[in-house]
Write a structure and sequence with these properties.
Blueprint lengths: L3 H16 L7 E10 L2 E10 L5 E8 L6 E2 L4 E7 L5 E7 L10 E10 L3 E10 L4 E9 L7 H22 L1
Antiparallel strand pairs: 1-2, 2-7, 3-6, 3-8, 4-7, 5-6, 8-9
């Protein structure tokens, strides 16, 4: 017969492992975007279909970051998610401000010079279960801007002239 502490330990480990596997479709982030090239606004609404409140929401994107807005009772933090990535986190300051169980909350917003694309989001509930998914957000352009192409062309012409001058 197994000791009671071993059974309890195995039960706790099982619950932790099972609770960390979260379905993304029970937490969705609806994005709306407005603006024109160089001046975009992104607004987010979180739809929480879990049985507990959500206390953290984060976006990871590659585009430029302007201003950040938060709902009442939420604070923000920014950091680097990885090379070329920006991480924006919104954190609830107290339980009454959390995204309610089976409810929604809006008021999360950012501005950016970067055009929309697909970005990753994460949320944590009051039990620290993580829910991940994708939504719309600012993404860095992969096509060089005309000014960048002109600068590159000028540099190549300069290199060509210098090589001809030193060789000739």
């Amino acid at each position: 017969m197994m000791p009671r502490c071993t059974i309890y330990g195995l039960s706790i480990v099982s619950v932790l492992l099972l609770s960390s596997v979260a379905r993304a479709d029970i937490v969705t982030v609806d994005a709306s975007m407005s603006g024109t090239a160089g001046a975009y606004s992104y607004a987010y609404e979180i739809d929480n279909q879990t049985s507990v409140g959500l206390l953290l929401f984060s976006l990871t994107f590659t585009g430029d970051l302007g201003t950040i807005e938060s709902p009442t009772g939420w604070v923000t933090a920014t950091g680097t998610g990885g090379p070329g990535e920006t991480l924006v986190e919104w954190i609830s300051t107290d339980v009454p401000f959390d995204v309610p169980a089976s409810g929604t909350l809006d008021g999360f917003a950012i501005t950016s010079d970067s055009a929309p694309g697909t970005v990753a989001f994460s949320t944590f509930d009051e039990n620290f279960t993580e829910f991940d998914g994708q939504t719309t957000g600012p993404v860095a352009s992969t096509v060089p801007e005309p000014n960048s192409l002109a600068l590159l062309g000028t540099a190549l012409v300069g290199i060509y002239i210098r090589r001809r001058w030193t060789l000739g």
